[in-house]
Amino acid sequence: MTERYDVAVIGGGPAGMAAACSAYENGAEKIIVIERDREPGGILNQCIHSGFGLHYFKEELTGPEYAGRFEEMLGKTGARLMLDTMVLKVTQNREIHMMNPREGYSVISAGAVVLAMGCRERTRGAIGIPGTRPSGVFTAGAAQRYVNIEGFMVGRRAVILGSGDIGLIMARRLTLEGAEVLACIEIMPYSNGLARNIVQCLEDYGIPLYLSHTITEIMGKNRVEAVKVQRVDESLKPIPGTEMIFNCDTVLLSVGLIPENELTKEAGIKIDPRTKGPFVFENMETSAAGIFACGNVVHVHDLVDFVTAESKKAGEAAAKYAINGNSAAFNSDSKAIINGENIAYTVPQSIRTGNADKFAEVFFRVKRVFGDSAIEIKDGEKLLKSYKRQHMAPGEMERIIIPGDILLSASGSLTISAKEDEKL
Amino acid sequence: MYDVTIIGCGITGAAAAYELSKFRLSIAVLEKENDVACGTTKANSAIAHAGYDPRPGTKMARLNVLGSELMEGLCRRLNVGYERTGSLVLAFDGKGMKAIEELLDRGQKNGVRELEIISAERTLEMEPNINPGVLAALYAPTAAIIDPWGLCIALVSSAVVNGAALRLNAEVRAIERKEGYFRIETSSGAFETRRIVNASGAHSDKVSEMVTKPFFKIIPVKGEYFLLDKSQGGLVKRIIFQPPDEDGKGVLVAPTVHGNLIAGPTSERASDPEDISVTARGLEKVLNTAARSSGKIDFRESIRNFAGIRASAEIDDFILEISAPGFVNAAAIKSPGLTAAPAIGLEIVKLLHEDGLELIEKEYFREYRSETLFRDMSMEERSEALKREKRFGRVICRCETITEGDILAALKSPVPPVSIDGVKRRCRAGSGRCQGGFCGPRVHEILSRERGVRMEEICQYREGSFLLTGKTKEGGAI
Amino acid sequence: MKKLELERKKTDENGVSAVKELVCIMCPRGCRLKVDESKDYAVTGNACPRGAEYGRKEVTNPTRVVTSTVKVEGAVHARCPVKTDRDIPRPLVRKAVALLDGVVLKAPVRRGDKVVSDILGTGASFIATRNMEASE
Lengths: 424, 478, 136
Prior knowledge:
By secondary structure, chain B is α+β, with helices and mostly antiparallel strands. Helix content of chain B is 30%, strand content 23%. Chain B has helices at 11-20, 59-78, 94-110, 120-126, 148-161, 204-209, 280-293, 337-354, 379-388, 404-411, 420-427, 440-451; strands at 2-7, 27-30, 47-48, 82-83, 87-91, 116-119, 136-140, 144-146, 165-167, 172-177, 182-186, 189-198, 218-228, 239-241, 252-255, 261-264, 268-269, 302-313, 319-324, 327-331, 395-397, 402-403, 470-471. Chain B is globular, with a radius of gyration of 22 Å. Chain C is α+β, with helices and mostly antiparallel strands. Chain C folds into 2 domains: 11-61, no CATH class; 67-128, CPE0013-like (CPE0013-like fold, Roll). In chain C, 13% of the residues lie in helices and 32% in strands. In chain C, strand 1 (9-11) and strand 2 (17-23) form a beta hairpin. At the A-B interface, helix 3, helix 4 and strand 11 of A face helix 7, strand 18, helix 9, helix 12 and strand 23 of B. Strand 11 (152-153) of chain A pairs antiparallel with strand 23 of chain B, so a sheet runs across the interface.
């Protein structure tokens, strides 16, 4: 006999915990959260810096504090937290195969499933940095774990490749632990990290940020000994003659995050190649009925607060699905969201109007940096609504609210685009 | 005093040790690195070639075909990854057509079985994702994909289980000929031995010169590769070659026994035998050439780039001979050296015998079977394993589903790993798409705990490739 | 060589700094602020009052919340994360972190436990930011 739960959440990080809490608040009774690590909290445990919670808790918390609060909330729901447990398979009929050292292999079933497995870091192999392959090349997150959780130093002289937030945060962390951070190298002409982190992690410590530069060679026989850095042209190709050598023993890679969807793909759930996460509807339901997804498994977020908000939405919908089964709203008319000019992706990718009669929330990223600008929603050529922005960048997720009446008025699909504001 | 000392524990040295350990001999294997399979054996195409490439009449031709025949049985007995996928050499133009006809002729002369030229239609039916501009292909059903380091580890483990002594971190510095024996000076002590097998790969010219007059020179040739995610692993079912050019067999595209896709190698003269750096130009060449075989490879799914050194020499054959009394060279073992290894092992035994080595077979020779990974076990085997060791239930490497039990089994094996990469080569922890991003620190911790060595002393691969430089909170802030 | 300078000084012909430019970090919007030192640190470019406050403070008396770790014994992990319970002047950050070197906590630790009191006379304390249970 497989044990049955109302809602099963895969992943006990911020997304999974928020989804489980929200499922409980919305009436789900038997809830399980399955976490592969030995403690809940996910990556927040190693994000010891502050800056979390300004939106959700209206105060500035560190990662462990944010995780701790949710752990306590989760504790009050009576949800079962299965730690040290790896989910090996999820099926479309919502069976979950999992394993841990205590119970071995087991299978449960659930009324609704929430996927909250998070993301992983892009590696050297993914971006193909030429040179030798010495030790001392770490993804920023792996280095963060060594430094913050285990108390080890990963190097003495570091160069950071990529200006993602974890890389910036680690630049400061290593500096304050006595390492020298020589430079942060970013291939794009703009930073991918939050302005706050550029200021407080690099500027405060005099660490130069080289935009439009990249590492073109890693040198060193056993341990990293140096890196070669070159300026890149507009097509991101290294420009000869711009070589600089940094003598360092460590390279941290902060070159992007990829939603971790191996379980999702194996379950046959539709993936959006732009986000590399599951295609989702307005309530975070995936292409498989009753299977929802939230957090970085759907798309990579900059702020955990947005993860929480999205996950509460998923948890609520999962509870409703588990209690009511497939409701009429779930099968209502759907409006696809088309990525117009300058839009890299949107989440959700489609909105079912029966579930969004009052409004729908859409998250997206732009493809380049904008100053004064406008976001436009169109039905074909017809402009339905526009939103003003003073600044937009690919590194900062945008959010708009589409009123229900506008949604209903659209004929079949909505196109979102971004452009410079002409009136200014 | 050893009867035979093998210098170098790549695939050649391991195959020699394996064959020799079947006899009542005292054997030593000297390896300069802290683990076996650290040179060419860990960085190659992972292919058992059918045998149509080498010129007929060469040792390479004979040993390739024999090795290819022996390979499957050997891999099965040692529980090493092997899959007879077959290979295709694609012809896209008149020159290519001529080339595959020549290969067919050579292959037939070399005694390769079941070789044939097939039509474009049949080629595309077999491999729908390859370049539709193909005119015809040479089909070799006997070609296979294998796990090279897995085989090397299993071979030397078998030798060790049967009494051979493996000396790691023992770089040979000098060899002195004494009365009826040799004295080998290494970085970790001296050894005396009656006979020597030189299987030191890219360094085999240097080692040979410690005993013989210089008579060959190793020309290190570098080959760069892409390894792609399992999402690309199913793109082709067979090893896809293009016609060979002056640089070698050219860039291939093939599935690996681990489910990934491999593309490479380039062929560039290397500055030194240890130069395994990858270059932007080399990677671009692989990318462009592989795209001719199949335009559907998504190189954004790359998980690793690497380069390997092929130990070529001026002569286009293996140097496999008694070069001096008591001294057998197994040098210039370039491609198809991996395929030929099982046959080279036998050949070395034959040469030693010719040199006067007495061979008395052991009554009891036990082959070492590699551990089956938990994920590859049957349901019954899994529950047995879990009863024996609870930690088979803890997944450490999530990309490859490798459990702590698998890592512990590797650490208890006859030739246990000492480094993070050593663990990876034995049980694949860290070889998946995140390349150890998540499991690296956990594997590190397990290695430190089980070996009783401080975290700071654990290396990524060889000595000096340390990961940690100290502890935090030791006075760094000011 | 292009170096991003978010906080660069605009100088007039006499080389005297007049206006400081910086990016507001109070929210992800990232307003480009201009703080005019000659006009009593008047802030322009801000979209909300928090920006004006930040701009003035960042130029006159920048402060930071400092996070780090301390050694902990008897817990599953070797380090316990800590933070200052309020922001401290930016020039004191390194000295404040150095105070943590000699600290060794014993598990169990509760979130909010004081680790170092009155950091360098600022009145701020380092407090633990997570619970660390005693391991068996």
